[in-house]
Amino acid sequence: MENGSIGDVLHGEKGGVLLDWQRRFNIAVGAAQGLAYLHHDFAPAIVHRDVKSNNILLDGDFCPKVADFGLARTLQQDGGKGDVLMSRVAGSYGYIAPGESFCVCVRVLVMWNVLNLTVYASTLMVTAKSDVYGFGVVLMEIVMGKRPNDFSFGENKDIVKWITDVALSSPELNDNITTCNQVDVGQLIDPRMNQSTCNYQEVEKVLNLALLCTSSFPMNRPSMRR
Fold this sequence. Notes:
Elements: H1 6-11, H2 21-41, E1 46-47, E2 56-58, E3 64-66, E4 73-74, E5 84-86, H3 98-112, E6 124-126, H4 128-144, H5 159-168, H6 200-213
Helix pairs in contact: 2-4, 4-6
GO molecular function, one term: ATP binding
Pfam families: Pkinase
Keywords: Glycoprotein, Kinase, Leucine-rich repeat, Repeat, Transferase
């Protein structure tokens, strides 16, 4: 694609200088529409399993296209739940939901023990909510312009943990609510953007949605259609 991927533009040679807020917002909406089509309108429904900024390509007009379906699987509809049983966890570090990344670590540890290798079998239930988590991370990337595991977040922190901590740090927030409505979003916006062109209400909405998408509990994550 003419403009590479979102990751290329945000983190690569293009440096993000061409992405003002309106363009970033349009990319986020277009990517959401693409995933919604896969989950809800394509038959059979598809779970991508590797949603990340490098897998969302941009054409000459910066219209996003969800790409790289090498790990994708069709969803086996079981009573309308859309669950699929996977023999292994797929995805990229920084974009995998917490429960799934735990399974990855277990698998790596077991692989070191050859004697136990034959008894390992993951029975992880993967749903479309796995893609929703990855999309939430991409939204945070689009706003901040940083990689999910940027060193600036500090030790043992990724972009999800960092933004969640910022949101919950506001004294006006209830502990059981994850939102950025009361937070100065200026500290979260990519400094390379011309902030005078930013729609701060849209930025807040995108961050709030990103926090919902990256909930530790899959049931709390919205569908891509929502």
